[in-house]
Amino acid sequence: MQVAINLQSVPCKDEQGALNTVKSFLSGIDMGNFELGAAVLADKLTADYSSLFGVEDVTHSKSGLIKKYQKFLSHFDQVTHELSGYNIKVENHIAHMVTQVRATHWQGHALWAITGTYRFTLDKVGDDFVISHIVLDVAGESGSRQLFND
Predict the structure, then answer these.
(1) CATH number given to 13-148
(2) Least packed by Cβ within 10 Å: which of 35, 60, 99, 105?
(3) pLDDT, tens digit (0-9, with 9 covering 90-100), for 88-137
(4) Could you tell me the residue ranges of all domains in the chain?
């Protein structure tokens, strides 16, 4: 996973913890290490990919969401999420992170790429954060969606 971070200032400990949680989640997904991805998810969480697939918010169990990712990503040989321009606010043990994303999905030499904004809500549990809400707002895409229909 490539992560490009624009630091205007040094993040505080909680901001860095929230960022590391999101990076761990996406790294796990990119590497096909779904246990790593699942380790930073809340037991119940909401995922909103309506701007991509037209499906409204859905509340999932951690294992249910990971199974959906596994099934969807099995269509691709490689997936990479690149983050940039993040903004993190932490208040009362809840972090809100907004970041630009470019997600590339490869199948052989064929590419499907998505650009947009990810919005994450993270809850602090003890010293760590877990992701409780994910929203993807798609700004554009290139390549063919046919790759995940094959």
Answers:
(1) 3.10.450.50
(2) 35
(3) 999 989 999 999 999 999 999 999 999 999 999 999 999 899 999 999 99
(4) 13-148
- Strand arrangement, sheet containing 41-48: 58-61, 41-48, 128-143, 110-125, 94-107, 78-91
pTM of the model: 0.89
Q: How far is CA 134 from CA 7, 12, 45, 93, in A?
A: 22, 22, 8, 17
Which DSSP string do the residues of the chain spell out, in sequence order? --B----SSPPPHHHHHHHHHHHHHHHHHHHT-HHHHHHTEEEEEEEE-HHHH-PPPEEEEHHHHHHHHHHHHTT-SEEEEEEEEEEEEEETTEEEEEEEEEEEEEETTEEEEEEEEEEEEEEEETTEEEEEEEEEEEEEEEE-GGGGT-
**Tokens for 130?**
């877990």
Determine how many CB atoms are found less than 10 A away from the CB of residue 134: 21
Separation in Å, CA 93 to CA 19, 25, 44, 122:
14, 19, 17, 8
